[in-house]
Amino acid sequence: MKNLLSLFLIGMLFVSGCQSTLPKDALIMSNESLATRQQQTRKYETKNEGEILSAVSGVLQDMGFNLNESESKLGVISASKKRSAVDAGQQTMAVFIALLGGGATATDKDQTIRASVVTRPFGEDAEYIAVRVTFQRMVWNTRGQVTTAECVDDEEIYQGFFDKLSKSIFLEAQEI
Known about the structure:
The termini are far apart. The protein is α+β, with helices and mostly antiparallel strands. It is flat, with a radius of gyration of 25 Å. The protein has 5 helices and 6 strands. It has a single domain (35-173), classed as 2-Layer Sandwich (TATA-Binding Protein), CATH 3.30.310. Strands 1, 2, 3, 4, 5 and 6 form a 6-stranded antiparallel β-sheet that branches. The chain has helices spanning 2-18, 31-40, 49-62, 88-99, 155-173; strands at residues 41-44, 66-71, 76-84, 108-122, 128-141, 146-151.
């Protein structure tokens, strides 16, 4: 009986040690999160998700992206492009440090910009297609180390993407 009681108490100790409470505001979105989501999302009045995905693919390619993955059944497209990340100011500072005897300094060299797009039917009768795009940037230095990994939060980039997408959707609908 003592062994059974001891096992029960030890079990209760482990269970209570693993229990944690979720803060009340853990699942509440902040105003910044809502603003960012609104910046990244638009809805289009159509039920043809395939047409929207085709337009998204075209816009991304026009912007210089290469399509990495596309799953039309899930409404997902990911694309990326590689660009130089060389910064003249950073290069000048590296030369200055080297001249002062500081040795070789790593500077930013390459960057990859990634776009992820998700579409989904929206509305009471799914009369809209919601499109959400996010852009991320990752920068590597001359030593092959990641120096920057960030979400792009430039309203002009998102506005430009959706302006091009709206025009593309219009042209596809008119079969132009």
